[in-house]
Amino acid sequence: MHVDIVPIGDVSAQVKREASTALRAVYECDVTVQAPQALPDSAYDGGRDQYRAETLIEIASRVGAGEKNIAITPADLYYRRRNFVFGLAYLNGNGSVISTFRLATSTDGGIQSRPAEEVFADRVRKEVIHEIGHTFGLEHCGNSKCVMSFSPTVREVDVKEQLLCGTCSKQLF
After folding, report:
1. What are the sequence ranges of the domains in the chain?
2. Tens-place pLDDT, residues 77-104
3. Under a CB-based contact definition with an 8 Å cutoff, are residues 84 and 50 in contact?
């Protein structure tokens, strides 16, 4: 299995490394990173000051060379009526996206007992694993510790682990 990371906007080397390492560890896949892509003006909603997540998924699918592709962006994303999303993927699709924009925050109750850089890196790894999991057909899991659990705030991201639970693993492997 080959997963391709498609940076959209100014994505740091650290974020690309964390994403790549996490994907290799959990899915035992080959990971490559494409050249950075520009944020598309067509995806920007000036009234919201956010970008449409679906447009970035389309870019990941078009630019990525993997069987699964994930866009990573520092831009704030939204999907339909949601105020924001950390990421988005279509079940069994080949494209997905995560945004690092809100993963650095602690304003909604996330972990504050570790250095901010560690917490941020941990969140990036979890969100990348989560969104690629959807492309493999995994739905949200009811186990709050499973990386596939739904996370509307960083508090829930911080609670879950960087691994699939036994039930989700059995669906994949």
Report:
1. 2-172
2. 999 988 999 999 999 999 999 999 999 8
3. yes
